[in-house]
Amino acid sequence: ALICVFNGPNLNMLGTREPEIYGRETLKDVETLCADKCRTLGHDMRFTQSNSEGDLVTWIQEARGKADGIVINPAAYTHTSVAIRDALAAFGGPFVEIHISNVHARESFRHKSYLSDIASAVICGCGIAGYGYAIDTVSRLIAKG
Ligand code: DQA
C-alpha cells in the first residue's frame, strides 16, 4: 500500500526549533524513522513538508485515489485550517493526526484541532516516535479495509 506522510509549517526546523519542546531530532530523522517503519510493514511511502497551507491541501487532493492512507502533522494549521479539514474529509481513506508535543499540556489555542473529530486516530506527546505509531495504526486500518 502507499502511505503519505505530510508535515506542516516550521517542521523543516525540527532539531533547532524549541528543542525543549520538540527534541533535537531533525525532520530528516523523522523521514528515516517513517521510511524504516513503512519498509518493515511492506508499504511504499511519500514524505513531504511545506510551510504553505495550499501545498498541503493540494497534496491531500492528489493523494485521493492514489494513497491508501495518510499520516499528517499539520503543525500550526491544526488549530486554524478548515481547508485542510475539508481536503482530508474528501480523501476518503484513513488518516492519523500526529503531534510531537502534547498539545493539551500547552497553550489553550493548541487544544482545539480542526481535524481530530474526523481523524481515524490522534497521537500526541510521544515525540517523533509518534510517527511510527501513526504508521502502525494507518497500516492496520488499511489492512482492515
Ligand atoms: C505540533 C504542535 C502544534 O501546536 C505546533 O504549531 C507545531 C507542531 C507538534 O508536532 O507538536 O508546529 O504539531
Automatic annotation (TrEMBL):
Keywords: Amino-acid biosynthesis, Aromatic amino acid biosynthesis, Lyase. It is an enzyme of class 4 (lyase). The keyword Magnesium does not apply. The record marks 17 as: Transition state stabilizer. GO terms for biological process: amino acid biosynthetic process; aromatic amino acid family biosynthetic process; chorismate biosynthetic process; quinate catabolic process. Pathway: Metabolic intermediate biosynthesis; chorismate biosynthesis; chorismate from D-erythrose 4-phosphate and phosphoenolpyruvate: step 3/7. GO terms for molecular function: 3-dehydroquinate dehydratase activity. The active site is at residues 22, 99. Its EC number is 4.2.1.10. CDD domains: DHQase_II (cd00466). InterPro entries: DHquinase_II, DHquinase_II_sf. Signal peptide: none annotated. It catalyses: 3-dehydroquinate = 3-dehydroshikimate + H2O. Substrate binds at residues 73, 79, 86, 100-101, 110. Belongs to the type-II 3-dehydroquinase family. NCBIfam families: aroQ, PRK05395.1-1, PRK05395.1-2, PRK05395.1-3, PRK05395.1-4. Homododecamer. Catalyzes a trans-dehydration via an enolate intermediate. This is 3-dehydroquinate dehydratase. It comes from Croceicoccus mobilis. The gene is aroQ-2.
